[in-house]
Design brief:
This protein has a single domain, classed as Rossmann fold (3-Layer(aba) Sandwich), CATH 3.40.50. Helices cover about 35% and strands about 20% of the residues.
Length: about 140
């Protein structure tokens, strides 16, 4: 953890990269229930870098990144984000329905800052979000 105060959910800026509209809807609703302001929740269907550049978005606190996207998988997008100085230190959390131990370990060794399995347990999501915003790595199957 750093000496910088963690943003509250009301101050947090989050990008959800998810190709399935229903999953995107669930995650954005959970973020709003956790206290995020709607104007601080951004959504991309796939190519996060293109989306971020087209919108001029910087200063994100967390990127929730689906691992199974149609054109580029989440691992390729993670490497692109890590290579970009603007997003190199942004907390990036893997989202996936693949929740075997080897899936969690691959995400960890690839450089993700956390792992959340789908389906997401809405009862625990707010706590997980607060922990992520505080700088904690969360490796869980919700």
């Amino acid at each position: 953890m750093t000496d910088i105060a963690a943003p509250s959910p009301q101050q947090a800026r989050v990008l959800v990269v998810e190709d399935d509209p229903n999953n995107r809807l669930v995650i954005t609703r959970l973020l709003r229930l956790a206290g995020l302001l709607p104007e601080n929740i951004f959504e991309a269907e796939g190519d996060a870098i293109s989306y971020l550049r087209s919108k001029g978005l910087t200063g994100l606190d967390i990127i929730f990144l689906d691992l199974q996207l149609p054109k580029k998988d989440g691992y390729a997008i993670l490497q692109e984000l890590r290579a970009d100085p603007v997003f190199a230190k942004t907390r990036i959390v893997a989202l996936t329905a693949n929740v075997m131990r080897q899936d969690v370990e691959r995400a960890r060794s690839s450089g993700f800052d956390g792992f959340i399995g789908k389906p997401i347990d809405g009862r625990r999501f707010s706590d997980v979000l607060r922990r992520l915003l505080a700088g904690e790595a969360v490796w869980t199957i919700l």
